[in-house]
Amino acid sequence: MWLAVGKTIVAAVLISFVSWLSGKKTGLAGFITALPLTTLLALAFSHLEWGDSSQSVEYAKSVFVAIPVSLLFFVPFLLAQKFNLGFWSCYSSGIVLLGVGYFVHTYVVKFF
Fold it and tell me: Tens digits of per-residue pLDDT, 4-30?
């Protein structure tokens, strides 16, 4: 129980800090967000909770393979000025691209 509470607090503080920082120093906030902070925290928490090194290695590999797919979320933001897109249209389009990318990724991985 306490581990779940601790994980929630650490994640909430990190997200809150980066969100606050994005209004003050956009570049630094973007850099911190681009770091694999979620992966660092989730890998450590997972290993502390389950203590299985092989499971942690498999988890890390799955994250590595998913990174290119996760970049699809940012494509609409890169095209926002060219196509005069607002925040919510970029955001929702990014989520749709993530979903499509996930299903394509899942389909392709089955064959390899």
Answer: 888 889 889 988 999 999 999 999 998
At residue 23, the pLDDT reads: 94
- pTM here is 0.66
Compute CA 33 distance to the chain's CA centroid, rounded to the nearest angstrom.
Answer: 9
CA distance 74 to 94: 6
Going by C-alpha positions, the residue among 47, 66, 64, 48 that lies closest to residue 56 is 47
Q: What interhelical angle do 53-70 and 37-50 show, nearest 10?
A: 160
* Distant-in-sequence, close-in-space partners of 59: CB < 8 Å, separation ≥ 6: 42, 43, 46
Alpha helices in 25-86 (DSSP H): 26-34, 37-50, 53-70, 75-78, 80-83
Question: How far, in Å, CA of 66 to CA of 102, rounded?
Answer: 8
Residue 32, φ and ψ in degrees, nearest 5: -65, -40
Average pLDDT, the chain: 89
Nearest to 41 by CA among 21, 16, 20, 12: 12
